[in-house]
Specification:
It holds the Pfam family DUF8005. InterPro entries: DUF8005. The protein has one domain. The termini are far apart. By secondary structure, it is mainly alpha-helical. 94% of the residues lie in helices and 0% in strands. The longest helix is centred in the middle third of the chain and has 63 residues.
Length: 67
Amino acid sequence: MSELVPLVYYGGLTVLFFFWIYGIVSFALDLKHKLVPGIRQYRRGRTQRDQRHQDDHERKENEEQLY
């Protein structure tokens, strides 16, 4: 009986450690493949929108100066 307790204890720790590491790796891969590209796409879209807004504003100013 006394040999079974450490075996079950360390076996349980090994299983829990495996799932803990699996969770960390899964989270890191989610960041790499989903969150980081999403943030890049969002920032790229905002930059394009701001540039478009600035171009429209300059075009309107030029049109106002012509009249």
